Amino acid sequence: MPPARTTTVSPSASSSRSGARFAAVDLGASSGRVMTGTVGPSSVDLREVHRFPNRPVRLGGTLHWDVLALYRGVLDGLREAGPVASVGVDSWGVDYGLLDADGVLLGNPVHYRDDRTEGMADRLAESLPPQELYATTGLQYLPFNTVYQLTAARDSAQLAAAQQLLLVPDLMSYWLTGVRGTELTNASTTQLIDPRTRDWSRTVAEAAGVRLSLFPPLRLPGDPAGELLPEVLDETGLEGHVPVTAVGSHDTASAVAAVPAVTKGFAYIATGTWSLAGLELTRPVLTEASRQANFTNELGVDGTVRYLRNIMGLWLLQECMRSWESEGRPQELAALLREAGSCAPLRSVVDAGDPAFLPPGRMPQRIDDACRRSGQPVPDGPAEATRCVLDSLALAHRLALEDAQRLADTEIEVVHVVGGGVHNELLCQLTADACGLPVVAGPAEAAALGNVAVQARAHGVIGDDAGLVRRLLYDTLPLRRYEPSADHGSPQAWSRAAAAVRAGS
């Protein structure tokens, strides 16, 4: 592996001797950011120009996204970005806004962690059995999938009045350009897309009572998505014709496009609030065994399939830290991770995919309860709780990748970790130990890099070949390699712990 390198970006114009400059709007569940990427035939330089919080709001018993605050952050970021050749938008999946006949938003979108979807899977199953739903869409059961949100909203006045539905990144693009569309990679998270035809499933829509006319036309990563409106140019100080380009608007689709893999036998783990662990395939796996294993077939850039399992991710640790802070025991993350690294390995582990960990609040207590139920020692203090979380996530990564290889009938030789978790060195090392495979960590801002790369390809700055893009990222980015070791538990200890989690899940 080449030595780690750092890259710098000068605040140049949209095009310079070093390449063209693009703006990536990357909206995450806890924060949003606008980044600029300067791309040339042999270089990619990324710079964060603006970061802003993403704080949900509970009103009238419903948890909402504050999308106007997010849009304000996008405009502020584009102002900081300066001249760019194009803009692309990605975000989390499943959530949406409804528009009336005048194109006006009908209320703030509901947060996927809201409890309105409880019982909706059973309600839909009355008209469409889960086996048939999976065989048609290939999407893993998650209680907040868009199809269940729409089932919950079926009798609402808001949905009855809606003329159009826009997923969150498409809503932001619409406000920037006045042009409406539905980008395919994010549409595939709705559980209304057939991954074989890469089009809407009328069978599922009819069973769920969903009007497909709500969705504007599908578009693909790289398609034009309009130009910044005059009012947006005034707000941001940008000039001329600034195109918006459709990217892999589901942030994981963009992140996977930026995995710097130079071998076909790779797996990826996109880390952050969620861990999404899986493989990049050319066709979906729609077997009953795949459904039972709770794997999803989301669509990716270049006609690929993201065959993966959603795991609770660093949400577990984030919620623990919020709880400790509310109790007057704030923790400094770096010190906490150092202390956790010295704790006994695999003393207590939990199933990181347990739906009990999905809601916010009281996370340390819920982890303690899970340990008690399984007869394991309860973590004693924040360091042991943190070690429990990280050991459990590493095990969840192992189990997901074992299942993915078995179900897709393929083998892997290296695991690429991208996203915010690359900064957690302990988690990266534990993942290598648990999987018994080398882990290549980086880049942290994979979604933004994939966003930029799709724009650069669409505008002819770099070749339209995913393999060449990945080689460029591999040669350009600072990466770190972790080899499996026995410092945090023997291979036999990891195998026993994995078997225990399987038996209890």
Radius of gyration: 22 Å
β-strand percent reads 15-25%
CATH class category name of the largest domain: Alpha Beta
Low-confidence stretches: 1-17
What gross morphology would you assign? globular
Percent helix range: 25-40%
How many strands, what sense, and barrel or not for the largest sheet? Answer: 7 strands, mixed
**Tally of individual helices:** 19
Number of strands: 22
The computed structural class is alpha+beta
Distance between the termini: 38 Å
CATH superfamily (homologous) name of the largest domain: ATPase, nucleotide binding domain
Count of discrete structural domains: 2
InterPro entries: ATPase_NBD (IPR043129), FGGY_C (IPR018485), FGGY_N (IPR018484), Rhamnulokinase (IPR013449)
Domain Carbohydrate kinase FGGY N-terminal: 84-256
Protein name: Rhamnulokinase
GO biological process, one term: rhamnose catabolic process
Textual characterization of the structure:
This protein is of the alpha+beta class and about 500 residues long. The chain has two domains: about 15-250, ATPase, nucleotide binding domain (Nucleotidyltransferase, domain 5); about 255-440 and about 480-505, Nucleotidyltransferase, domain 5, CATH 3.30.420. Helices cover about 35% and strands about 20% of the residues. It is built from 19 helices and 22 strands. The strands form seven sheets. Strands 18-19-17-16-20-21-22 form a seven-stranded mixed beta sheet, sandwiched between helices. Strands 1, 2, 3, 4 and 7 form a five-stranded mixed beta sheet that branches. Strands 5-6 form a two-stranded antiparallel sheet. Strand 3 and strand 4 (about 45-55) form a beta hairpin. Helix 10 (about 250-255) packs across helix 17 (about 445-460), helix 15 crosses helix 16 and helix 15 crosses helix 19 (about 490-505). The radius of gyration is 22 Å and the shape is globular. The model is unreliable at about 1-15 (pLDDT under 50).
